[in-house]
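Anyone else keep sequences and structure tokens together like this?

Example one:
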Amino acid sequence: MNWSDVYKSKLVSADEAVQVIHSGDWVDYGSICGQVRSLDIALAARKDELEDVKIWSLLTLSPPKILEVDPTGDTFTWNVWHFSGLDRQMANQGLPAFYAPIRFSELPRYVRNHIEPLNVAMLQVAPMDKHGYFNLGPQNSHCRAVCERAQTVIVEVNTNQPRCLGGYHEAIHISEIDFVVEGSNNPLPSLPASPITSVDQQVAGYIMEELVDGSCIQLGIGSMPSAVGEMIAGSDLKDLGCHTEMLCDSHLKMFQAGKMNGRLKTTDPGRMAYTFALGSQELYNFIDDNPICASYPVDYINRPSLAALNDNLVTVNNAIEVDLYGQVCSESIGTRHISGTGGQLDFVIAGYESRGGKSFICLSSYFTGKNGDKKSRIVPTLTPGAVVTDPRSIAHFVVSEYGKFDLKGKTVWQRAEGLINLAHPDLRDELVACAKQQGIWRRSNKH
């Protein structure tokens, strides 16, 4: 079979491709670095021809043109499985951007079994290879599930998409595609490194005390996980592994420093396994056609029972606030949505289930309010309306710049004492008073 001829037979312009979209349709726009650009512009031009078109995406990194031309949502509604900073900004501006709650490891199943019928899938891919395959780039996640569920599949070719080796489900064949669009070849969106503060370094230092040679590392988004990666790169640790939802520049630095070879991993030994990559162009260059990296769907990477097969799995994620019972909120401030569950719950479970493993929830002890006063992130109860990301029965270690506390096996009064010790000293008396009022403070507790 001459796949080039098949390619040419399916090649159309972006304007032609989006003609398959009709009023009332559900359309997947691709996720993360695979969000479509040329097709987005073409669909935006059809705003006045359509109504009630619902879009799916995940972790938006480029402003969608369809919302620029339709800010009131008369035609298009933007729905995402995880809020990025841009998604949050769009929602705060009143644009029709909405969150769909998930446990990330379950997302391919949601797509296959639970969402409304998916009329069209549009996603960015790398150029077709000689065997007729388009690599999905650094966002394996749930892409295959999307393509399987969609009635029509359109790919937008971007020569800047790296070819990310599997694993599995990292590519789609020309025979499975309805239309090919040659895109505008935009550079991939980057994730600028968050400045690492002294608080981040203090938190990272407490986590470093728990690491051993051969630890398998998962890092979430944010400056505190990045600080852990920086410290590891400069440490004496060796033979570390990588099994992570997001492959980031910190993993690259650990590898370049000779700390991460994966030789002691149980799953994918010798390989850096991930479901999406997000960071610098240097990171995208590193994963391109690199056999040391393994791209997998999220129901493989984030499945707690599978991730936990790796001994000494260490998972590091952020939180917005933690209450005295050990409930962790990492995705909202009251009812104001900030982020999403993502894979945090998956990896909190996996870290504890791993032999020798640990999971860490990190946060600064306080933030500064509008009046310049200190506001504790260790709180008596979560802010009304706040989402519980990690239940009190699941969370393991909580870490602030004042130390770390292991919640497992602790009573409510032990939790209150241990967590108050992670709060800023100026705010502890008020927390003690609240603990007493809530009936979770024992007379013999330290004070």
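And example two:
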Amino acid sequence: MMKKRSTASLPGFRITMGYTLFYLSLIVLIPLAALFLKAATMDGAEFYATITSKRVLAAYRLTFGASFIAACINTVFGAVVAWSIVRYRFVGRQLLDAIIDLPFAMPTAVSGIALMAIYGPNGLIGKHLIPYGIKTAISPLGIVIALTFIGLPFVVRTLQPALEELDGEAEQAAASLGASRWQTFWRIIVPSLLPSLLTGFTLAFARALGEYGSVVFVAGNLPMKTEIASLLIISKLDDADVPGASAIAAVMLVATLLILLSVQGIQWWSQRRTGRA
């Protein structure tokens, strides 16, 4: 009995994988390797002193903390937005769906100026909150607002396909068996959406870690207070301290990679638990 030969639009595995590795190496791996090589030009003591200085540690804490908070906010409210767009039909739905992509299309500098016009000391909202002691710009709160703004589309666009593919029959079966809406939500809907939620969180978190343009306008860039890691790297480059900037960037890269791998591990576990692996 003759076996049927499998056909595919793309060439064979070896050729395709060869092009894949070449492209990834050229675009991703070689620049990252150059970063580590530049950081390695520093001796061990100088490298350690650079990445553990009080100013650098403060920038790390602010960057990772604000990015995590913004990603959590986007995960919750991005899920609500995606649910509303997919599950309901209302006037202006397509317009709302298009507006979500604005942070994708807008230059980051434009986003920063727009946020300052609203949340700055003289902004439409910011000026009304200052008398209550709430600073929505030139503060960590302003950084969280900016990172939330640029990260929302990642969660919404990740969840939309999952919501569209969600099996409505399972919800109807749960309702017919006497389950309440909250029981259906937590036991049927959430487990099905958890892998997509984690993916959206990961993308929003990673995007926030690397943001610079919009944050630099609303942060105030005060060392030890509102200075993010990206701005500190730019400051090092302005001072012609390329090895120092590379050292800070290398630590950011390793920490980000470990966090993303951890989230991917949780996502893999949740997929196996829900039988979607």
